[in-house]
Amino acid sequence: MEISEKKEQENNNNISQTTTLDSSSTADIIDKESEERQARDLKAGLHPLKHKKLLSSVLLKEGIRPLWEDSANCNGGKWIIRFKKVVSGRFWEDLVLALVGDQLDYSDDICGAVLSIRYNEDILSVWNRNASDRQGVMALRDAIKRHLKLPHSYVMDYKPHDASLRDNSSYRNTWLRG
């Protein structure tokens, strides 16, 4: 009986100690658990995009907002690449690494990239600053295909942002195929 009272008293002390943890300690514990779970998943060969319920993932250069109307984007457009869901994560990862590592030709013209998760496919788009420079737009397409090792025959669509504003659509009614 004395032992059980001591255990109850210890349990009560533990509960009071647990409740006195501050929020930063709790956040640190949660962050650590999340990092450990992510490390286990990566070791097991599970890709982080497989577990997320994302609608889109955006990577833009500093100071550029993900809006067609942003001053860096308003005269530009985007190359649109459609992928089957099973391979989109790999292509997105390759593109992000290329953008962060400044490995693509014409990278000064690139504003960023967006991965849009759709029901039947995923859409990767690379945003650029100047849609009126046809030669630069086509050279960017070639650089993307080369870096992602897409066949030369792989079809990509291009759409200027002002056209997206007019028809209120990101991916319909594209202007250029290549």
Automatic annotation (TrEMBL):
Record's keyword annotation contains RNA-binding: yes
SUPFAM superfamilies: eIF4e-like (SSF55418)
BP GO terms, sorted: regulation of translation; response to virus
Keyword terms of this UniProt record: Initiation factor, Protein biosynthesis, RNA-binding, Translation regulation
UniProt feature, compositional bias: Polar residues: 11-27
GO CC, alphabetical: eukaryotic translation initiation factor 4F complex
Pfam families to which the protein is assigned, alphabetical: IF4E
Region entry Disordered, spans: 1-32
Protein biosynthesis among keywords: yes
Listed Basic and acidic residues bias regions: 1-10
Domain of life of the native organism: Eukaryota
InterPro entries in UniProt: TIF_eIF4e-like, TIF_eIF_4E
PANTHER family given in the database record: EUKARYOTIC TRANSLATION INITIATION FACTOR 4E HOMOLOGOUS PROTEIN, ISOFORM B, EUKARYOTIC TRANSLATION INITIATION FACTOR 4E RELATED
Family as reported in the entry's similarity comment: Belongs to the eukaryotic initiation factor 4E family.
Protein name: mRNA cap-binding protein
The organism of origin for this protein: Salix udensis
